[in-house]
């Protein structure tokens, strides 16, 4: 058995097999996954994950937001656990690795510690955070947000999906609402392994991203109201075309983001058009503008200009418009001690690595507010994610999980 702290490695083949096994649950239509939160597929994935954790000797916990916890005991029962966490829920056209690598990579760390008979002073824990994606129930990172005290549990459980179903009802329906009060669990630290979901690491030839910061996010929901009317018989000057108003605002969003190049980004991924009939001028559109930047002042400027210039566009077109902030968080600086542990792990393992700012939001961004937190990233092919064609290599998955193993061991303390 290699002495703790030596060149320890996880079992990449076993990790890959688990990733492929989980990918069979909630399959997409093009090779990825559609395992949206609080669906039957989510429940099936949770059941499989719990089975694997119990087989690895973990004690299981479940809180009132459905956050799952698997605990590997340490030698010091009074020491707070070192967590590794991410999410098993996916986008409707999601990939096999977004979130899943962080949860199953954490499981592989536990399995490898068991194989090597390594004991740690602090317990080690795995978290599966409910509804990280925020696609069925907005906003993203909802349950880690409740855990960190960002949202109240009541507000979260009242979130509705497109069919009007409530988060709380759906959590109970799938049978994954626990008894443990959310947020009471204390952590010594948390590490989240995640695919980059961008092109930088692959382009730079690096296996590991040492995530120093997470960029901030702003979600503004815009409702434009015009007037339904016939697309054929309504003269152009008489139209109140909410769809055209949205098109002009989407062009504005693009201009605003480009005005803060190279780091700011902006788009709308959610768009609902009413009545969405091919021969009716849309009388109403509801869409969500997603702005992101590592710089809070830039985010605030983008939000301000969206409202000011968006209002002007609608006024000139005789359209009513309402803006509602429906999600967001400030740019995040991860814990310097945990970030250094990640960097030392990559160095000791000999993996090419670089500092990186996370372009996407993650549960770690909220948990960082209640416990020392850092992230580890691995590349993904062409930087593609939130697409069923999302792909990583087994080597990248293995490297990321090896770094997770070493960062956690350093933080949890190996007991010889
Ligand atoms: O929106 C995000 O950045 C994350 O993928 N939920
Ligand atoms: Mn994710
Ligand atoms: Mn995602």
Task: Characterise the protein shown here.
There is one protein chain. The strands form four sheets. Strands 1, 2, 3, 5, 6, 7, 14, 15 and 16 form a nine-stranded mixed sheet that branches. The protein has 416 residues and is α+β, with helices and mostly antiparallel strands. Helix content is 35%, strand content 23%. It has helices spanning 12-23, 40-55, 100-116, 142-147, 153-157, 167-173, 200-204, 242-258, 296-317, 336-349, 363-367, 394-412; strands at 59-62, 68-72, 82-86, 119-120, 124-128, 189-195, 208-214, 216-225, 229-230, 265-274, 280-281, 284-293, 320-329, 332-333, 353-358, 373-378, 414-415. The model has no long low-confidence stretch (mean pLDDT 97). The structure holds (2S)-amino(hydroxy)ethanoic acid and manganese (II) ion (2 copies).
Q: How many individual β-strands?
A: 17
Q: Proportion of β residues?
A: 15-25%
Give the % helix.
Answer: 25-40%
Oligomer: single chain
Structural category: alpha+beta
What ligand molecules are bound, each kind once? (2S)-amino(hydroxy)ethanoic acid, manganese (II) ion
Number of helices: 12
End-to-end distance, in Å? 11 Å
Mean pLDDT over all positions: 97
Order of helix and strand elements from N to C terminus: HHEEEHEEHHHEHEEEHEEEHEEHEHEHE
Envelope shape: elongated
Which stretches of 5+ consecutive residues score pLDDT under 50?
none
Q: How large is the radius of gyration?
A: 23 Å
Let me know the largest β-sheet. Answer: 9 strands, mixed
């Amino acid at each position: 058995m290699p002495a703790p702290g030596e060149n320890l490695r996880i079992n990449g083949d076993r990790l890959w097999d688990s990733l492929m096994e989980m990918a069979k649950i909630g399959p997409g239509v093009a090779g990825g996954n559609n395992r949206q939160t609080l669906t039957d597929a989510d429940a099936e994935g949770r059941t499989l994950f719990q089975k694997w954790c119990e087989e690895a000797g973990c004690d299981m916990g479940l809180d009132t937001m459905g956050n799952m916890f698997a605990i590997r005991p340490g030698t010091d029962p009074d020491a707070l656990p070192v967590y590794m966490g991410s999410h098993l829920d996916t986008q409707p056209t999601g990939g096999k690795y977004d979130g899943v690598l962080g949860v199953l990579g954490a499981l592989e760390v536990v399995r490898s510690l068991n194989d090597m008979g390594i004991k740690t002073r602090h317990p080690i824990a795995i978290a599966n955070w409910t509804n990280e994606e925020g696609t069925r129930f907005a906003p993203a990172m909802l349950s880690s947000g409740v855990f960190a005290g960002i949202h109240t549990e009541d507000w979260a459980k009242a979130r509705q999906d497109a069919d009007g179903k409530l988060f709380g009802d759906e959590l109970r329906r799938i049978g994954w609402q626990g008894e443990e009060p959310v947020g009471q669990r204390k952590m010594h630290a948390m590490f989240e392994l995640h695919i980059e979901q961008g092109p930088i690491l692959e382009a730079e030839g690096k296996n590991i991203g040492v995530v120093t910061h997470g960029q901030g996010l702003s979600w503004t929901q815009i409702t434009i109201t015009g007037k339904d009317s016939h697309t054929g018989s309504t003269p152009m000057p008489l139209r109140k075309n909410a769809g055209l108003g949205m098109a002009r605002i989407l062009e504005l969003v693009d201009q605003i983001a480009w005005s803060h190049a190279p780091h700011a980004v902006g788009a709308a991924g959610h768009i609902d058009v009413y009545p969405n009939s091919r021969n009716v001028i849309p009388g109403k559109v509801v869409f969500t503008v997603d702005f992101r930047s590592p710089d809070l002042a830039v985010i605030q400027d983008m939000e301000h200009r969206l409202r000011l210039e968006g209002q002007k566009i609608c006024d000139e077109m005789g359209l009513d418009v309402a803006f509602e902030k429906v999600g967001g968080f400030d740019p995040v600086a991860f814990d310097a001690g945990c970030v250094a542990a990640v960097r030392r792990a990559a160095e000791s393992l000999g993996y090419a690595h670089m500092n990186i700012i996370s372009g996407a939001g993650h549960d770690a961004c909220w948990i960082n507010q209640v416990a020392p937190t850092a992230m580890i990233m691995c590349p993904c092919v062409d930087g593609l994610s939130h697409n069923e064609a999302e792909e990583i290599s087994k080597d990248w998955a293995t490297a990321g999980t090896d770094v997770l193993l070493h960062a956690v061991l350093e933080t949890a303390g190996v007991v010889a």
